[in-house]
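May I ask for a protein sequence together with how it folds?
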Amino acid sequence: VQLQASGGGLVETGGSLRLSCSASGLTLDPYAIGWFRQAPGKERVGVLCISSRGGTTYWTDSVKGRFTVSRDGAKNTVYLQMNDLEPEDAAVYYCAADRMGPLAIATIRSPGFKYEYDYWGQGTQVTVSS
């Protein structure tokens, strides 16, 4: 099983990027997908989580109204669309998959809730120039 986040890069403040989370050896439909980020010298934090089949999404406050997420079952891929990027958004972004939707979502709804997703992908770097 391999999960891979891709699509990162360098963008100016106010710009947009779309990250992809793809999987091999794993069908993503039954899994909640979380996006996390880790800035240098800081802990990894949750950004948002979309439930299996896309019925529910929770965002951390700092990205509400700017980040959206979507699922493409045919491509076995989940997309994170990031708009109006700010320097504070710069980080390595990771996607993760978990069977337990409510627990996965809880990592975003309650930032202090510690829970380890089933699968984690390699990260992709997002750099935002000011």
